[in-house]
Amino acid sequence: MRVSLLLILVAVVTGVTGQLSLKMGMDWVGTIDGGSVAHPVETLSKVFRSHLVWVGLALYGLGAVAWLIVLSRLELSFAYPFLALSYAITPVLAWRILDESVSALRWLGIAVIILGVVIVSRT
């Protein structure tokens, strides 16, 4: 059970760090708008020249492998709610690392998510 919980943590952490990496990579790329869509080859070329986009995608791949192992060991109804931690951790790190604003209502939502995961983990 401990190994499975560790693998869930790996899936969550790689998902969160993957999101942060993708966001930083796309900040380098810039806004994709109608003009960008009209030139898809140039836009995709710029996206895939960002090393942070590649890091983010690799982290997602690693997380997916960890998650597949988790699914082979635990009931989905128990394991899946733990992934909600990424919805709590990502905005906190975006606030700290990317200097994004997080409203009071979002903080409340983060607290509710964490409470929900605690409840599920005790069942």
Gist of the model:
This protein is mainly α. It has one domain.
The helix content, as a percent range, equals over 70%
How large a portion of the residues is in β-strands, by DSSP E?
A: under 5%
What is the total domain count? Answer: 1
Mean pLDDT level: 94
Radius of gyration using CA atoms only: 17 Å
> What's the count of strands?
0
Distance between the termini: 14 Å
Order of helices and strands: HHHHHHH
* Shape, per Cα inertia axes: globular
Strand-pairing-aware structural class: mainly alpha
What is the helix tally? 7
The poorly predicted ranges are none
Describe the largest sheet.
none
Explain this structure.
The chain contains seven helices and no strands. It has 123 residues and is mostly helical. The chain has one domain. The longest helix has 28 residues, at 2-29. The radius of gyration is 17 Å and the shape is globular.
Write the layout of secondary structure elements.
Blueprint: H1 2-29, H2 34-38, H3 40-48, H4 51-73, H5 76-79, H6 85-97, H7 104-121
Helix pairs in contact: 1-4, 1-6, 6-7
